[in-house]
Every structure is written in C-alpha cells, then in structure tokens.
Design a protein that fits this description.
Chain A: This is YciI family protein. The complex is a heterodimer. By secondary structure, chain A is of the alpha+beta class. Chain A is built from 2 helices and 6 strands, in the order βαββββαβ. Chain A has a single domain, classed as Alpha-Beta Plaits (2-Layer Sandwich), CATH 3.30.70.1060. Among the domains of chain B are: 73 residues; 53 residues, no CATH class. Classes of the chains: A alpha+beta, B mainly alpha.
C-alpha cells in the first residue's frame, strides 16, 4: 500500500538496449507500442493498482517570479536540458518489489523490430502521511 | 421534513445485514454487492423518509437487489443453455456472523491492501468511493481491488475460526494509515476493533484496542495548527483525551492480568507508560526499556530494537542509547533520525545537525521530512553557522 512513480525519460536516463528513435520505427511498431502501454494500464486498473498515467509534451518553458507587480519571467525551452521527462505512471502497490516488477514489465514495451525496448524507467516512492503509531 | 442520517449507526448494521443474506443462501460476493446498493439507496432515501426498522429495511432492499441480480444472471445462463436453479439455502456458518466476516475479509489468501479494502467495505460499511478517497486512488481502481478480493475469497469455506492475528494485522494497518483523507481511518479502525473485541475474547484483541485508544487519545496534540508534527516530548498533555486514556489503560490491565502476553499488549504497555506521565520528564523510561525487551522476545521486528535504543538513551543517557543503536541495522527507516536525536542529547550539535539533514532526505513522509529539516535548521542557526 504505497504509491510509486514510474518515470519515463526522453533524455537523462541511461541508454535503452533497443535504442532506436520512434520516428524510425514502422507505423505498425508504433501502434504495437501504444497498444502495449494501453494494455498495461488497463491491466493495472483491473488489479486495483493503477492511480494515474500521463504523457508530457517534450517542450516546456521555465518560469520564475520577478518581483511585486511584475509579470513572471519566462525562458526556454532549452534544447540542451539534460533531463527530459516523457511521462509517468503512478501505481499503488503492496511492496517495493511489486513496483520493480511492474516497472520491468513496462520497460519491455515493444519498439523497433517488435523487440522490447529495455528502456530505463525511474522508480520513485511517494512521500506519504506519517504513521499514527510512532513509538 | 428531512432528518440527518447518522452514517455511523447505519454502517454498523452492514455486517449483520450481509450475514442474513449469506445465511439465506446468497454467495458472499453477490450479497456484498447487494448490501452496498441497499446502503446507497438508504443514503438517498432515508433523510426524507426514515424507516421504522432500519435493519429490516436494509435486509429487504438488499435481498430484493440480490434476487434481481440473480434473476438477470439466471436468465442469461438460460439463454446460454445452462441450468439455472433457484438459490438454495447454504450452510450456516457456525460462528458469530460478524466474526465470520472479519475472518473472511482478512483471509490470508488476500494481499494486505485487498484485505484492508474488503474489511472497510464489508465489515465497515464504507462505500467504494469513501475507501478510494481515503487511500487516494481512483474509485475505479478501488472497485477493482474490492471485486478481485471478493473473487479470491469466494471459494473460502470458513468451517472453523480463522487466525485472529490476521484480522488484527489488517485493523492495525487501517489505524496506522491515520487520517489523511476525508474518511477518518483511525476512528474507523477503533470502531471495528471495538466491535471485534465484543465478539471474540482474546487478550491481543484487547491489546490492540488499548494501543489504538492510547494513541488516538493524543491525536489533538500530535500536530500543530500549521500541520507540522509535534514530537511526544513537546506535546501539550492537557489536550490528551483523558477518557480514551483511562479506557485504554483499563482494557490493557484486564488483558495483562490474563497472563497471555502478546505484541500488541506490550506495545500498548509502552503507550500507557507515556500516557501516565504528567510531563515528558516524568516518563518511566526504565519500565519502557523493559517493555521493549519483552517486545524483542515476542517479535523479530527490527523497529523494536531501534525504539529500544532511543528509550535506553532516555533511561541511561545518550551514550548508552548510541551504544544500543550500534546493534541496529542502519538501513532501517528512522535510524538516522534516532542517531541525530541521541547526538543532540549528547551535546554534539554539529553531528546532530548533519544527521537530521540526512534523516530528512531519507524520510518517508512529508510531515516527518519537514520536522527533521526544521530540527537541522534550528541546530545550525544556534551554532551560528
């Protein structure tokens, strides 16, 4: 009963085993990949472990406060940003081992040649509410 | 005229209603669905039209819902050319109905999260939506978790009582989840444990109930108005719920007198010693260490040794506590926080500040992280960095 974020990177993670950019795949391979991701989410809904899944547009803007009465300053997008988040899935599972198992399955999504991508996913635990019993 | 619905009293009827349906021959999963529907219907209709006999109303509506579902299912089966028979009266469980439900919902074939969800719905009478909100997951996810759990236990025949320890573990999990969502899970756990204690005579059930009451009693003082954690030593003890403390201590003493010590009784004994101390300084740490020694004999949970080291630090001084801490696995959550505290007590503020900051990075909850960060910041500010 703990939540984990499975984080998918465009950049910043170690290179995948089957590391071919998506635009070099065949259209069928792209469809197979998307179907795998959807099936995976549907399966998690069925097991009662799914919380959320979202994809992000690759380009973002940096924003910061610029003082009282002034509009916020914006900057970017920076083409050279080292770490780029592609999207995430949030799961609610009984153990850390189960989180790793699911991340492993998600990483097996098919890519070029219909072979698993073996991409690196980052597993991050959520901070939760403190337990009632402390001593 | 509409009367406000006393939700807690309606929910307390749920296990009994469910048991009636099962006794009449309904299978558990379908009966549970039917009771849930009747409950939702009650919430809709009772404020404007309260029934004279609430339990009888729920039984009648739930049974009708069950029959509707059964008939729909039977006609589908007929269309598929399979035999459809009238529901026949099934075996009547030979234990108290409520107790039987507790055992079923905490059945060892269930994962902890499904046992918790099923217990809250079938015994606690909470709706799927309420349980989903309490655990911060989508309602559809929680609905699936519950229906899978029901499928898992659908073939279970409880011809003899289960192990009460499995039920206690589930209730402890619910209690420890606290009160983050809009359902007060700690209060719900107290209610369910109290009810369990009424139907089963077992010193560990009393031990868990006492433990919950003693911790629940401190609830108002556990957090500051801004939501930050207030450690036990700094809590305003005048805000502790003295009635809950007295009840918890009474229950614990009666349980201990039976001389069948268990983990929950020993934990409750520690909580009782804290509750008994008028000020933090007057805490009987020597006795607390002795209870942790008992606990260490009862369980191999390494957290016990960690808590014992902190108690030794209070009883025999921080150096003794640090020495005891060397025997504890440093990978344990809160190990670094305990070390930081003992170094602070020992006057080594530089080490303490460094360890508090490290403990904050390892914290598992936001409130704990913020608390540890503030302690590190306070020590650093005092040292004039």
């Amino acid at each position: 009963m703990a939540k984990y974020l499975l984080l998918k990177h465009y950049r910043g993670a170690p290179a995948a085993v089957n590391d071919v950019p998506m635009d070099r795949w065949t259209p069928e391979e792209v469809s197979a990949h998307i179907a795998y991701m959807n099936d995976f989410a549907a399966r998690l809904e069925e097991t009662g472990e799914f919380v959320d899944g979202q994809a992000l547009a690759p380009e973002g803007t940096f924003v910061r406060y610029d003082g009282e009465g002034r509009p916020p300053v914006t900057d970017g997008p920076f083409a050279e940003t080292k770490d780029l988040i592609a999207g995430w899935m949030v799961i609610d599972v009984d153990s850390y081992d189960r989180a790793l198992e699911l991340a492993g399955e998600l990483s097996a999504a098919p890519g070029a040649g219909g072979k698993p991508i073996h991409e690196w996913l980052e597993v991050r635990p959520f901070l939760s509410a403190p337990p009632t019993v402390t001593e | 005229m509409t009367a406000p619905l006393d939700e807690a009293s309606v929910r307390s009827l749920v296990p009994g209603v469910l048991a009636v349906l099962v006794r009449r021959g309904a299978d558990f999963a379908a009966a549970e669905d039917a009771v849930q529907e009747a409950l939702l219907e009650a919430v809709r209709r009772w404020p404007a039209d309260p029934p004279r006999d609430a339990r009888g109303w729920l039984v009648a509506v739930a049974w009708n819902r069950y029959l509707d579902a059964w008939r729909a299912d039977a006609s589908r089966r007929r269309r598929e050319d399979l035999a459809g028979e009238e529901p026949a009266p099934g075996p009547v469980p030979d234990v108290d109905d409520t107790l039987w439900l507790y055992f079923l919902c905490a059945h060892p074939s269930l994962t902890p999260s499904s046992a918790v969800a099923l217990t809250l719905r079938a015994v606690g009478g909470l709706t799927t939506r309420q349980i989903a909100r309490a655990y911060l997951v989508p309602e559809a996810t929680m609905a699936q978790r519950i229906s899978r759990a029901k499928r898992t236990v659908s073939g279970v025949r409880l011809d003899r009582p289960g192990d009460v320890a499995t039920v206690l573990r589930v209730l402890y999990l619910v209690f420890n989840e606290g009160y983050s969502g809009d359902v007060d899970l700690a209060a719900e756990a107290v209610r369910l444990t109290r009810r369990l204690a009424a139907v089963v005579d077992h010193p560990e059930v009393s031990g868990l109930l006492a433990l919950m009451l003693l911790h629940h009693a401190r609830r108002a003082s556990r957090t500051a108005p801004d939501g930050s954690l207030v450690p036990l030593a700094e809590q305003d003890r005048s805000r502790w719920d003295t009635a809950a403390v007295a009840e918890g201590i009474g229950i614990l003493q009666a349980a201990l007198a039976r001389d069948r010590l268990g983990e929950f009784q020993a934990q409750a004994a520690v909580a009782a010693l804290h509750a008994d101390a008028p000020t933090a300084e007057e805490t009987d740490w020597v006795q607390i260490v002795e209870w942790y020694d008992e606990l260490a004999r009862l369980t191999d949970n390494p957290v016990v040794r960690l808590n014992r080291a902190v108690a030794v630090g209070e009883a025999d001084g921080p150096r003794a506590g640090l020495a005891a801490l060397t025997a504890v696995d440093p990978a344990l959550p809160r190990h670094t926080a305990a070390a930081a505290y003992l170094h602070e007590r020992d006057g080594d503020l530089a080490t303490a500040a460094r360890l508090y900051a490290e403990a904050a990075r390892k914290a598992h909850s936001v409130a704990e992280r913020d608390h540890l960060t503030r302690r590190a910041a306070r020590l650093n500010a005092a040292r004039g960095r």
